[in-house]
Model the fold of this input.
Amino acid sequence: MRAMVESRNFLSLVLSALFGTALFYRIPFQDQNNLLQLVLIEKPYLFYGIKWAYIGMLFSTPYIGFSLVFSLASTSLLLGRRRQPSSASCRPTHPWQAATSCSS
Done:
């Protein structure tokens, strides 16, 4: 479980690459849209900028989602564990409490 928590960034990257590739083939960029064809004729740099932004978001959005899910999952795993009290918690908070020791 600890290894999964430590490698959650790599796991998010791999899953988002797989998911982004599936989206790339499932929902391709609409090159044949009439408005986009007009943009391509008038300003090709804008058309290709829109196209690359679309493709970039196909891969970055799943990464953000998987990163969020794994971050919340690891946080809930870490918060769910109860830690044993350390000896540091037995230290007195004030000097006049030094006479009482932590015997339990």
